């Protein structure tokens, strides 16, 4: 028997990568590794972002919140500090806005090859730590190659519409749950956590759900 955790997230959402690390740490620290199945679900923070987007994230944030670029930079500094707490070194100066529709479709495809988790991790790492333009086809294919999947097959996914329906289903499910922002975690269809909350909340929720399911920690 396993616990199911569904995670709605987007590859350009800074708190999604932080939340992912928190969930991973909570699973390890509570001793339920191997008893929890994590499923990543698609969410688009801004579907209107152009496919060929090149705008620096700092200037995009300044426009969105109607603040100066210096103020936007200060906002990102706080997020970068939070990321550091979970071992992630964000580089907002390198980041550019990106449309993530193709990235989400690619992750759905990678899932069918047993590499959905690797694809998701590589996309987040490429965007937040390396400043890669994950909205661009050539970048996506390079990442596919790096995790050992077929780039020719991936090219058809990137340039086509396959898996669009799966992405839309995830977004619709999020709407039905009333999800307004990501990350959003659902534990065994019972409990939800919205955002990158304090580490203890992830651990308490896992322990509560595991206890209700009659599971015991395997490694503590």
TrEMBL record:
Residues 5-206 form the DSBA-like thioredoxin domain. SUPFAM superfamilies: Thioredoxin-like. CDD domains: DsbA_FrnE (cd03024). Keywords: Isomerase. InterPro entries: DSBA-like_thioredoxin_dom, Thioredoxin-like_sf. GO terms for molecular function: isomerase activity; oxidoreductase activity. Pfam families: DSBA. PANTHER family: GLUTATHIONE S-TRANSFERASE KAPPA (PTHR13887), THIOREDOXIN SUPERFAMILY PROTEIN (PTHR13887:SF41). This is Predicted DsbA family dithiol-disulfide isomerase.
């Amino acid at each position: 028997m396993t616990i199911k955790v569904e995670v709605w997230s987007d590859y350009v959402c800074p708190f999604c990568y932080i939340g992912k690390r928190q969930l991973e740490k909570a699973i390890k620290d509570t001793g339920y590794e191997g008893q929890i199945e994590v499923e990543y679900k698609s969410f688009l923070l801004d579907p209107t972002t152009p496919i060929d987007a090149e705008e620096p994230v700092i200037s995009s944030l300044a426009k969105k919140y109607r603040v100066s670029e210096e103020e936007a930079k200060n906002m990102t500094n706080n997020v970068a500090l939070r990321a550091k707490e979970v071992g992630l070194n964000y580089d907002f100066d390198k980041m550019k806005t990106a449309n993530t529709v193709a990235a989400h479709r690619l992750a759905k495809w990678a899932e069918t090859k047993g590499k959905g988790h690797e694809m998701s991790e590589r996309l987040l790492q490429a965007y937040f730590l390396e400043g890669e333009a994950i909205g661009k086809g050539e970048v996506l294919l390079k990442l596919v190659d790096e995790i050992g999947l077929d780039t020719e097959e991936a090219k058809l996914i990137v340039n086509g519409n396959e898996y669009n329906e799966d992405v839309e289903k995830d977004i619709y499910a999020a709407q039905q749950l009333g999800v307004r922002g990501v990350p959003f975690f659902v534990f065994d269809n019972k409990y939800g956590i919205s955002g990158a909350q304090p580490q203890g909340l992830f651990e308490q929720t896992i322990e509560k759900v595991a206890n209700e399911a009659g599971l015991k920690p395997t490694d503590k």
